[in-house]
Amino acid sequence: MTKTEKHPLEKVLEQRIAIIDGAMGTTIRTYGMKEADIRGERFRDSGKDLLNNGDLFSLTQPKMIGDIHRRFLEAGADILETNTFGATSITQSEFFVDDPRETGGRKDPEFYQKVIEDTMLGDLAWEINETSARQCREWADRVGNDTGRQRFVAGAIGPLTVSLSNSPDADDAGFRVVTFDQVRTAYKQEVRALISGGVDLLLVETIFDSLNAKAALVAIREVFDEDGKDLPIMISAAVGRGGETMISAQTTEAFWNAVKHVKPLSIGLNCSLGPDLMYPFLSELSEKADVAVSCYPNAGLPNPLSETGFDLGPEDMGRYLGGFAKDGLINIAGGCCGNTPEHIAAIAKALQGVAPRELRVEVAA
User: Fold this and answer.
1) What is the CATH number of the domain that holds 24?
2) Is 282 helix (H, G, I), strand (E, B) or coil?
3) In a domain, 363, yes or no
4) Quick check: pTM over 0.90?
5) What pairs with residue 247 in β-bridges?
6) The domain containing residue 108 runs over which residues?
7) Which of 55, 133, 275, 280 is the most exposed place for a label (fewest CB within 10 A)?
8) Alpha-carbon span 206 to 292, nearest angstrom
9) Alpha-carbon separation of residue 214 from 99, 183, 184, 255, 362 (angstroms)
10) Could you tell me if residue 37 is inside a domain?
């Protein structure tokens, strides 16, 4: 599809560094929710623990989720992420389907084909995505109208709980628990539901397996072509100490080369090791990429003794992200695990008035 005019977010990125929100899971933790709270009446009799299935809160505790969205927006976020990190039938199966390994079996493509065909899981995944997108849309529009500054909703597409790149069986390197087509199918459903809920763009994030991400990007392209849609795409990977995308072990530059054909609105890094250890890999990506660069790291390393579960406080994150900005590395900034609305407010304050990374302009031959 030929682009006739720039997306409003592209215009923002030409003028300043845009702010993306923080960690939904971390912020939910501060509300003191218990197992009974996430279950509500609807999931009261579920056989498995659900508290780690944070996406369900969009259905059972919508007022809390709305309050979190409001707080992130009031902290200065331009981009609000939907609460859909695990909202595929594949990931939801972890909470609603018995694990065959507990009875001597194993998870394999046959198991996940049943998951893909499970009407309950499919309907639940759709509902979570569509509902969360509408919740974000409501608050983004409300705060945007009140402040006179447009806010954007990003449909968050997480990495899944399975890998297409690696085998879990040490004796069978070629074995995969799931197929590319199964992953693509699950992602297509999520993409359609997010679009139905009114998102402005799609965010394939926290990528630890580049092949999973490829399946998500193929799914997005197929939905666009089949449904006549076209939204901006943001792509963000999680990296290890060597700058590799975790399981798939691609370097930062190799990862960019693998996805740049999509012509995303932005490429970036999130989650990972905290801002200090992320710096050299972000610097490399900033040098290589010819699109906007995003960065929303964890608030340092995990620390169970901390109130948020991570080491760094708001002032720390503001200082680190402010340094990234002053070094000309970023166009979009925010926080991942451990970052509350207070962290995002500190980041937004630190970046105020700092020029964004200069975007390259391609010259036609």
Assistant:
1) 3.20.20.330
2) helix
3) no
4) yes
5) none
6) 8-351
7) 280
8) 17
9) 27, 10, 9, 11, 25
10) yes
